[in-house]
Amino acid sequence: MSMFSFMKKEPELPPIDPTLVLAEAQACLKEKDFDSALEKFDLLCSLSVQSPLPLLSRATCRLQLKKYEGVLEDCEKVLMFLNADIEGHEEETCTTVHSLALMRMAKAYKELGNLDSAKSSLMRKNAIEHKLGRNRVDDVAEDSVEKERETAEEWKEKGNVEYKKENWTLALEYYKNGLGYDMYNSKLHSNTCMALIKLRRWSQALKHAEQCIALEPNWVKGYYMKGLILSGESKIEQAQVVLRQAAKIEPGNTQIKALLDEVESRVEYVESRLRRRKPAKDKGPEQPEPQAADDSGNDNDNDRAVEDVDSDEEYCDDDGCRTPKKITLKVTRADVINTAMDLAAAAVGVAVVWWFVTQRD
Fold it and tell me: Which of 38-42, 241-245, 285-289 ranks highest by mean pLDDT?
């Protein structure tokens, strides 16, 4: 072994080209080589997935290989993405990513013997397509979809009763039950979001607010809730952008205007604080300059106003606006000298009084 062998570097592997891997996977699918295709899709899904399509394609491979649990896992992940149109699956009456994922889930549940879940997945798929008006479902399916919508409305009303009682957790449970029957009900997403906001569960609430915007782009409630959530997370600049979008959609909405004014006030306050601190940061710590004493023997510091570390203006955070809890005062040299002189004068006064008393005796 060479004494310099430790200096040899292992050759770096070339970066993975997702486009090339996808082309190879699709070629394997055409040849019905599902094992090889699955390996390619596993590689694609191991990358930073920004699209539901690799997951959906892997679910298709797993379905062919009878790996049904994997199918359900992939399809659940697909449903976490926003819905989008898809082509090439018209024979399955699927025109969106979500409806195709639900169709794959229905087949997997059926093979696993879970017929109730298979039926529920198929109904949800039909509800999506029926809502979009892209295909006609038969009378039986349409009746089932209508029943599911009615059940969802019943859960929504139960949730509303608890919400008014301020039972946020129970209301949330009822709203989620309703979404299990009609996951594309924007009102249910809105109510679920508001319950989560009351519970200060910001990240979950944000998902439902964004779903409201996706389902009803011209309904300002989704934008309002998203702005409220971002404000609650102190992401005030992002909240400002969202609320300005809402104000463009419905300029006369007083709730939007009030929240936007509050957020913009907070943004302006933060920016003003940063402007005040920036010069001190750029210049570094200030060094006191020597100053000549005046005729009275006091430094010029005596003429300076008392300063505090933090401004006593109101500031805002998650708990609202309040004044600073701590104010630190700067004591100047002149203050010390004046105090010493006062004490000396008092001591002289005591000595004079004592002298008069002793003389009387």
Answer: 241-245
